[in-house]
Write a structure and sequence with these properties.
BirA Bifunctional Protein, domain 2, 2 domains, alpha+beta, OB fold (Dihydrolipoamide Acetyltransferase, E2P), 8-stranded mixed beta sheet, 16 helices, 18 strands
Length: about 500
């Protein structure tokens, strides 16, 4: 028992444990190894709810359905109750004259939250509710702690995340979110498999952090006496595979970044990353539109769907807007501010003293994050950000200060990030060395030179387009959830 439980809760725990003891004394197996099953609750409802009472009476459909008891309504020698499989509730009806006095007495030892299996035939009540007339109710597991009060559910947000199992029991919409997330991942796999991509797995522990500008988590391998870093992105390993001739690769990966926690960020998150040889960032835009439009239509039934107070449209083509033009349009700053580079750097440094942007490009990045992104609601490819904040992308063929990169923004969130990948080993080394100098000056989001990756490039990386898409944020959009914690089963929380 928990010290945090109040007197009423403790009384219920004591009562439930007493019932549990009595079930055992009555010879009921307390820890069964398996359970008979013909259907789950959702299957019964989907298959038979459309039948009339007369049709059910004629067909005498027998079912064995396991589930958790979520309601009990006793009426003397008969009881209505509901069992749930996490998707649907199904009513059951147990009568003493049907199951026998001894079995009905044992049924009285069951509580809300207990897991049982109901066996019997289907019928409809006078109100038209599909119901199992029980021949037997088999005990499967005891819920030794009381569930949250049924009318209010589980409302404490932090408790919902700490005890996700309770959240799933009490809030059916939560289970639907995670079923949708699973469907998103399954759809993505089908999409890339159908296009000849190979799914791969790359290391989660790196000797040299890289693949994105972010602060890594550090660990230590005792046997090798080696500092290692949890990956911030799989990018550099996936491009090594492209060098090796795997021209179409993707990975659905876990990545880790030692940064703040907010509605859009969790230190541990899921990314889709994919790379295709002989393509560039324009090709990635086309592929992204195809993927996201297919997800919306395939999983939601429409290219338009609600997100908060907005209606998001994944209708193709998506809007395209250059990074600098987005800053000039939405930042609220006068046009001449962007021409005064030293002044803009000083202004941005005041906005983000923790990042200390020392260059015009990094200053623009701060301004975009602070003033611009929230204005971009409909899917928009923000293209050609400054080269210096894109160390793994090719320089724009039109402007040497820009990169061939896009970020897909939707509802103020970055959902995807793609490059025409930098393939020149000498330039890549020079950019790594620039980052290393920034790291010496205190920039924790830059990284040392990855000489092994540079060597891989020296064997020849063909023209390549690459992209990362955040699975968590994508699920937020499709599930209409405003916090990343709502779509991550076990988000990181401070210890209680």
């Amino acid at each position: 028992m928990s010290d945090k439980e109040g007197p009423a809760e403790l009384d219920q725990v004591v009562a439930r444990r007493d019932k549990y003891r009595r079930l055992g004394e009555a010879g009921v197996p307390l820890f069964p190894y398996t359970a008979a099953r013909t259907h789950d609750a959702a299957e019964v409802v989907a298959s038979f709810a459309g039948l009339t009472a007369a049709e059910l009476e004629e067909r005498k459909i027998a079912v064995v359905v396991p589930g958790r008891i979520l309601s009990i309504r006793k009426m003397g020698r008969a009881t209505f109750f509901h069992v749930s499989d996490g998707r649907e509730r199904l009513q059951a009806y147990v009568r003493e004259d049907k199951v026998g006095a001894e079995a009905y007495e044992r049924f009285g030892l069951l509580d809300l939250g207990d897991v049982v299996s109901v066996s019997g035939t289907l019928f409809k009540t006078r109100t038209g509710e599909l119901t199992v007339l029980c021949d037997a109710v088999t005990f499967l597991a005891k819920c030794l702690r009381p569930l949250p009060e049924k009318w209010h559910g589980l409302q404490d947000v932090e408790l919902r995340f700490r005890q996700r199992y309770l959240d799933l029991i009490m809030n059916p919409d939560v289970a639907r979110v995670f079923r949708l997330r699973s469907a998103v991942v399954a759809h993505i796999r089908r999409f890339f498999d159908a296009r000849g991509y190979i799914e791969v797995e790359t290391p989660m522990m790196h000797a040299v952090p890289g693949g994105a500008l972010a602060r890594p988590f550090k660990t230590f391998h005792n046997a090798l006496g080696l500092d290692l870093y949890l990956r911030i992105a799989p990018e550099l390993f996936l491009k090594r595979l492209t060098v090796g001739g795997l021209g179409k690769v993707y990975e659905i990966n876990r990545s880790f970044r030692n940064e703040g926690i907010d509605a859009q960020h969790n230190p541990e998150f899921t990314m889709l990353e994919f790379y295709e040889a002989y393509k560039d960032y324009f090709d990635m835009m086309e592929l992204t539109e195809e993927l996201l439009h297919g997800l919306a239509v395939g999983l939601l039934g429409s290219e338009e769907f609600p997100y908060g107070e907005h209606t998001i449209s994944f209708k193709r083509p998506f809007k395209r807007l250059k990074f600098i033009d987005a800053c000039r349009t939405y930042s609220g700053l006068a046009p001449e501010r962007f021409e005064d580079r030293a002044g803009l750097i000083a202004f941005a440094a005041g906005l983000a003293p923790d990042k200390k942007p020392a260059t015009w490009g990094k200053a623009l990045d701060v301004i975009f994050d602070r003033f611009v992104k929230d204005h971009i609601v409909q899917p928009t490819f923000i293209t050609n950000p400054p080269r210096e904040i894109s160390p793994l992308a090719k320089t724009s063929r039109d402007d040497p200060e820009e990169s061939e990169r896009f970020e897909l923004m939707v509802a103020g969130m970055e959902v995807a990030n793609a490059f025409s990948e930098l393939t020149d080993p000498a330039e890549q080394r020079a950019r790594f060395e620039e980052q290393a100098e920034e790291k010496k000056k205190g920039d924790d989001e830059t990284h040392p030179v990855d000489l092994d990756y540079v060597e891989a490039l020296e064997y020849g990386l063909p023209p390549t387009g690459g992209e990362g898409i955040g699975i968590d944020r994508l699920t937020m959009l499709l599930a209409n959830r405003r916090s990343i914690r709502e779509v991550v089963l076990f988000p990181l929380l401070r210890p209680r």
